[in-house]
Amino acid sequence: MITMDCEKCGKCCVNVPITVEEYQHIVEQFPGIASAAIDYGFAVEIHGPCPLLAPDHSCTAYELRARVCRMFPVVVTGKDENGFTMGPSDYCPRATTVSSADIEQAKELRQEYNAEMAKNWQEYQQTHPDAASMALHFLASRSPLEMQDEKISEGSNSTTESRHDTLVTVIQDYEATLGRRKKKGLKT
Prior knowledge:
Elements: E1 14-18, H1 20-29, E2 37-39, E3 44-49, H2 67-71, E4 74-80, E5 83-88, H3 100-127, H4 131-140, H5 143-154, H6 159-183
Antiparallel strand pairs: 1-3, 2-3, 4-5
Helix pairs in contact: 3-6, 5-6
């Protein structure tokens, strides 16, 4: 488990992307989360401040929290030849307390998350002709894409085209992760 002395500011508990399976598991115990859930079919976003935050900004579902919640304040910081690079978040006031062991644990959680998202995406796109549109909506809600908008749009006159290119890259990354996991005989 990632160890840090959380100051409970609540900044990390906004617009949280989780897998469908994580959502189903959490909503069984905490049906109130459904009020903030946006179901994209292959992923769920807990939109706005998470309804599971207590008034003191502690998590009322701490033991059941999703992988992205368990990873925080370790986040994806870039990409290299081995996949995503991870490090402390820039907007967490306690991110400097993260250890290298925490980063390694977060990488494992991220691999699980990516593999599950890739599996969900593959299943969803096979049965839904609107899959690309739904994925664009999901990606548009994510801050990494928003941060990339300026970079992407510099090379293209069309934001839709840019987002599509980004979507294709993300999907290819997910599919590659799933392929590597299958090759290694890991659960996909």
